[in-house]
Amino acid sequence: MELKDYIIGNLTDAHRMLGIALTDLDDKIVSYRASDHVNSIAQILAHVVMGEDRLINASCKGGERIFDAQGWEAKTGIPAVQGGVWNDKVWQMDIPAFLEYQKLVERNAMQYVLSVTPEELERDVTFGPFVQPVADQLRGVLVHHMLGHSGEISALKGVQGLKGLPF
């Protein structure tokens, strides 16, 4: 199996798991905090999807995030400032708008991964403090990161009496 096919398959699975975690959400569910030491689902979702947007569009493509280019701060309620998602006292997620933004980011990421060349996968890019080949960034930041947070979201749903993942 080629590296590109491996990444495509894993990203498809990660998006599927996040999609499952996104079912049955409402304002009460996404803003619930089990304690001051536990992030809300809204914070986690904003972190994961904005990270995917930033990795693909700013780091890999060298452009602007979909979030900034299309005015998603005003639509979703999520702060555009890096790290602003962790202060949930000053913002509230608009769930339908967020889900629309999330789908755009998902389609954009998949289009990029489908078009990537072997040379592009080897090119070093910077994401936060990490300088790594595109393939490593996609594997770590998108796939592993998204899967981990999908489980976290599912657990937070379970604590609230909802079904997290379907197994």
Task: Describe the protein's architecture and organization.
- The protein has 167 residues and is mainly alpha-helical.
- The chain contains eight helices and two strands; from the N terminus they run αααααααββα.
- A two-stranded antiparallel ribbon has the order 1-2.
- It is 63% helix and 5% strand.
- The longest helix is centred in the C-terminal third of the chain and has 26 residues, at 134-159.
- It has a single domain, classed as Up-down Bundle (Four Helix Bundle (Hemerythrin (Met), subunit A)), CATH 1.20.120.450.
Fold blueprint:
Blueprint: H1 3-21, H2 27-31, H3 41-60, H4 66-69, H5 72-76, H6 95-115, H7 118-122, E1 124-127, E2 130-133, H8 134-159
Antiparallel strand pairs: 1-2
Helix pairs in contact: 1-6, 1-8, 3-6, 3-8
